[in-house]
Amino acid sequence: xxxxxxxxxxxxxxxxxxxxxxxxxxxxxxxxxxxxxxxxxxxxxxxxxxxxxxxxxxxxxxxxxxxxxxxxxxxxxxxxxxxxxxxxxxxxxxxxxxxxxxxxxxxxxxxxxxxxxxxx
Length: 120
Prior knowledge:
single chain
């Protein structure tokens, strides 16, 4: 029984990955002695320092803007939110408006024929 070409291709890819991993992995004896891993290349260290500095500057800017805005009035925010909620209408609210809804909100008098009744 022969193996499909996809299986052979996968085996070759895994073998290539193992070879690349062996090139990056330190020898077991060095790991066992507890020696530190190889230091990062200077280019990567510089990139990390620049990235950390950028994040720190962003945090300082956000903090400064928060302090400069001054204290907020929680009552005004609550009122604005309550106004938005009370003024909001669902896009499907029209489905609740049914014909004759005003008759559902009133109590009919016994003996009186409602105007919508077909015998009128």
